[in-house]
Amino acid sequence: MPARSKRYQNDAKKASQEPVSVAEGVKKVRTYASTKFDQSVDIVMHLGIDTKQSDQNLRGALSLPHGIGKSRRVIAFCEDSDAEAAKAAGAVEAGCDELIAKILGGWSDFDVAVASPKVMGKAGKLGRVLGPQGKMPSPKNGTVTPDILQAVAEFSAGKVEYRSDAGGNIHAVVGKVSFSEEKLLDNVQAFIAHIRKIRPQTAKGTYIKKVCLAATMSPSVVLNVVA
Question: Is residue 78 predicted with pLDDT exceeding 50?
């Protein structure tokens, strides 16, 4: 692991692993940020779920109250007759056979792929390519939908995708350091509330075990979140 910067090490000395309120955590993360670029703020939630059980694997997407401070490059798998409308809504590329061929040829300069159910039969062949990149459209996170134009607009504006990993952790961007405390707090609370709301019925014991907030190049802060 590369050596941490002096700025990070100084911030780490001020950091405490004792949980703080969500509001205090947001304030503390913003005080750490002193880099030349606008750092993203990430949340990591360690959940009491058994990811070996299919119904406890969490995956989805949501629009946070104040966005995440950046746009995303979205492509749309749709019927060719809808391609121009999808591009007008914000897609960097849209269509079916030609777009599929372009990706099979090695192109991958996009962040999110959305698809109409009508063309998923053809787009399904991209599973081996897009699956490992986390870009394969899925109904679970709203990227397979009959309302392609809305999906393109929402994901272009920064709609947040999330999925639990094998260890039961969920990671997501919840904003930028440049956000006001109020806006960042709104986003963090909205994300936590959403994850709490979708607790699997079969999950046993403590559901929310640990929540951390951190900027891209700053120490993490442990949040006091009631399970």
Answer: yes
Q: How far apart are CA 97 and CA 95, in angstroms?
A: 7
Rounded to whole angstroms, the Cα distance separating 225 from 118 reads: 42
Tokens for 153, please give them: 């607009």
Give the pairing type, strands 93-95 and 160-163: unpaired
Angle at 96 between CA 164 and CA 77, to 5 degrees: 30
Q: What is the reported pLDDT for 1? A: 47
- Supply 8's token pair: 């990070």
Residues 6+ apart with CB under 8 A from 131: none
Share of residues in the chain with pLDDT > 90 (%): 79
Distance of CA 136 to the CA centre of its chain: 14
Angle in degrees, CA 158, 162, 168, rounded to 5: 160
The DSSP symbol for 5 reads P
* Tally of helices (H runs) and strands (E runs) in the chain: 8, 9
Mean pLDDT over 196-217 rounds to: 94
Q: Are 18 and 212 in contact (CB under 8 A)?
A: no
Q: At 206, which amino acid appears? A: T
Helices (H), 33-177: 83-88, 97-104, 120-123, 127-130, 148-156
Following DSSP, what letter does each residue of 137-185 receive, concatenated?
Answer: --GGGT-B-S-HHHHHHHHHTTPEEEEB-TTSEEEEEEEETTS-HHHHH
Helix/strand/coil percentages in the chain, nearest 5: 35, 20, 40
Q: Which of 34-38, 161-165, 171-175 has the lowest mean pLDDT?
A: 34-38
Give the pair of three-digit tokens for residue 188: 């963090």
